Amino acid sequence: MFGGEIPKSGRMGMALGLDKIEALAPDQSSLDAAKKLLKANGWPTLAEDQAGLIWGECQGSGATPYRVVVAEADAGYKCSCPSRKFPCKHALALMWMRADGKATFTPAPAPDWVNDWLSRRRGPGVAAPVDAAKPKASLAAVSDEAEAAPDPKAEARAAAARERNRSDREAAIAAGLDDLDTWLSDQVDKGLASFANSAGTACRLMAQRLVDAKASGLATRVDALPSRLFALPDMARPQAAVEELGVLHLLAEAYRRQDSLTADLRSDVRQMVGWSLTREGLLADEAVERVTGSWRVIATVSEVQPDRLRRLETWLFGAGQLGSGQFAVLIDYVPVATGAASSGYSVGDRFEAELAFYPSPSPLRALIVRQLSGAVADGAVLDVAAGDLSTAYGVYERALAARPWLGVWPLSFSAARVRRHGETLYLCDGDLALPLVAELATVALPLLQVAPFGGVGLWDGRALNLCWADTVLGRWAA
Amino acid sequence: MMHDLKSRVLPALLSGTARHPLAGDALASLSLTGQALRFERPVAPPAFAVEPVIRDERVIVPDRLRRPLQRLLAAKPGMVTGLFPAAIARAMHAGRWRPHPFDLPKLDSLIRSHGAWLGAEAMAFAQRDAAPDQQAGYFEPDAIDEANWSRALPAQRQGFIEAVRRRDAAAGRALVEAVWSGENADVRVRLLTALREGLSGEDTVFLQGLAKDRAPRVRELAQRLLARLPGAGGDDPALHAVMERIKKGQTGLLKKRATLALELPATVAAHGAPVWVNEAFGDIGLDELAAALGLTIADMIRAAEKDDNLLLAFVIMASHDKRFDMLDIVVGLYLPDAWEVLARSNFSDVGTLTADERARWAQILVRPQTWVKDVPLWGLVKLYQLLDGPAPAALMRDILNCRPWRALLTDPDKLTGDMVDVLAVLCSTEARGILRAQLAALDAPKTANALLFLDIVDALEVPNV
User: Fold this and answer.
1) For chain A, which has fewer Cβ within 10 Å, the N-terminal or C-terminal residue?
2) A126 close to B (CB below 8 A)
């Protein structure tokens, strides 16, 4: 009755026709883009409930596949991509494949994410009304782009321009790092005890300088510093200021000495300062670590950055043929204005995929090279390492030693329990007691009544974001 | 080295190297000190709280119900969707189910409003922010007895006393008297309200003793109860007030019979009359008014046949007095739309009616076969609130067969989700099949919540083992 079955009503599927798709498309370029997505192997999941709902997962340019659902009766749809076009190319492509009849939609009960969307729909579908005044998009006008033949001279000019730009940027960054050191020296001169009180203006100006210096990664870090400090209790802010500003100088020095660093560390520090490693660049690097296996989604985190981008993190745990298990995090950035607030994956989802890890002495960030199966909800217990919390913390310390600017690190543990001191909850095992983040103060309360359990949390150096617990009462997720 | 960092370098960094210079590169000291601090393990607190052990005998809802419950109860609260939490709590209570402990934070509004009906752990969660002296113990209804009743929630205490009063009025009063002086005003009002059940002359002495109670509303309620007792000498200001507004006349040529007409205050407009009537007549008994008018109850009703406001007053009084025979006469012969009018009167007190009595009362009052144009949405919402549960099966079948509802089924554009939702919460177990069949042909957005609710309650009614 539940777990995918949708209340049956008169929602019989009405076939989506190609003319309907043409009418829905916001413009010609949307249809052109949708056509490129019509290959079934780009859709690890294509399914239907045989009562008018179709859905799929589409591997896009982001780290995580996009989830799309369409109600055939009224062409209502939802996609997890951040596109500002409605319907987006993924929704159009899904409808197109359905209308074409060439792709196979596997009959299946609707997963929770589809049911959640259905339950939020009230009233007519969300399909955009047809605008008679706008130029009509036409399937007939969709072009098949053939790759142009390479032009050696143009490529040489482009390569030279890229090298010039790179060189200019390195010079700009070097100057920016010098300014950063000057700024840090000023703060240290004045004393960091009350840095947090005046951090807002000071950090904003320094962040802007770093943006101008094309060191966007450092700029974001500096810009976020005031809010990170103010999230802490008063008493903790001075020491936190020492740690945070210390890391900034560490990054600057590491960048200056990058030629003497290992390849992994060098790549890592360049990314931290702001050099992007594109998907294509990462996949072209044969030295990049690739891991194929079965991955469980253990947490999803969404955070708005000062630059108005939303950072979407999907944390994965891989087991099985990977031996003791490995963590990975997929990171996407979407503009806040798009309204997209999640990656589309749900905690507990399992899928088979090949991941490529960004180079780092403590590899964690990855992207999906190819997804080998659709994501399915999995209620199985997480097969984490049998070590206790202290052992897991030791792994964190080794990772921190290898990557001194380490941010959030996953801790997997067995047989820990939640206890309370005042208003704060702690995850405890032996002598180690890690405070939980304040946001879990209510949702983790039921764990006070539960016997010791295994699970996973994300440790940021000060507080633990407990995200998964396998208990005698079943799985707890934040 | 760590000692040096913390005793010399860190203080200098905090207070400023302008005042406390450091040897060597200050920024290098900054980075090294910062990193050293990051390697310090967190210090555990000196002690942890000892959590109370909560024993909850109820069975946790099956896993397959958890997500649907969250989905249903996450719906934006509206006039009707606000009924879902109460209906779900009722069904869980009846089946002795409890929410999964991990879902308590996600069902916070349900837990805070209805935690007392959802098991010990839910109740503890609902009271987590309350001061220790304001926290009540949790009791299953059949676990409350004369030894522990005074530790239950106020609503449960009232219900317990009412139940005792039905069996043995004197024993019920004795229990109340034993705890009276130690209770706050809210509880005293509830316990006094419970004494309406089985009210008799034997309660006179206790009620007279409340003339000096420190709470005005306790004193007023005691006086109203006294006024209903024959020979108690109670002065009933409410009765005096309405008697001044009831005009008694005569009609008939050969055989004279009485007529009654109610004069509304000048400040009460016609549309506000039901509310005024409820306030004016709500504390008066049928017998009491009939005696004051010098008529039998039946004659009094007949005399008011042309005055809808007075007939409404009789409906209200007959409901409080459990005079279903008289209620049937008023509604059946003179005021067929009594329910719709009552729903507009702010009537909210079904007194001490048991669940069976409420069902009988609703069966008399609500007459779907008389509905011509519309299904009274607000009236149905009110019906659920007053019944505190589904409608009786026969009444529900009548509602689902009434003309305006069947018309809506054939013209679904005029049908609202609210209408479907209220019928779902009102629907008795026996009538669910009829409602499901009727909803099957409608659009999913309008029926999704209702069908989800029906699925959930169906599952909750399966005996848990």
Assistant:
1) N
2) no
Instruction: Choose from B8, B38, B63, B460 for mutation: most chain A CBs within 10 A.
Output: B38
**Residue B455 with chain A: CB contacts under 8 Å:** 1-2, 7
- Tens digit of pLDDT per residue, chain A (478 long)? 333 333 333 334 446 788 888 888 888 888 888 988 998 878 988 999 888 899 999 887 777 788 999 988 778 888 888 787 888 899 999 999 999 888 899 999 888 888 888 776 654 444 444 444 554 567 666 655 555 567 888 888 888 998 998 999 999 999 999 999 999 999 999 999 999 999 999 999 999 999 999 999 999 999 999 999 999 999 999 999 999 999 999 999 999 999 999 999 999 999 999 999 888 889 899 999 999 999 999 999 998 887 788 899 999 999 755 545 799 999 988 888 776 667 778 899 999 999 999 999 999 999 999 888 888 888 888 887 668 999 999 999 999 999 999 999 999 999 999 999 999 999 999 999 999 999 999 999 999 999 999 999 999 999 999 999 999 999 999 8
Contacts of B444 in chain A (CB under 8 A): 6-7, 9-11, 118, 121
CA distance A277 to chain B (A): 27
Find, in chain B, the residue whose alpha carbon is nearest to that of A246: B31
User: pTM here?
Assistant: 0.81
Q: Angle at which helices B444-460 and B417-426 pack, to 10 degrees?
A: 10
What is the nearest CA distance from A275 to chain B, expressed in angstroms? 23
Q: Mutating which of A122, A179, A197, A420 best tests the B interface, going by the most B Cβ atoms within 10 A?
A: A122
Distance from CA of B53 to the nearest CA of A (A): 7
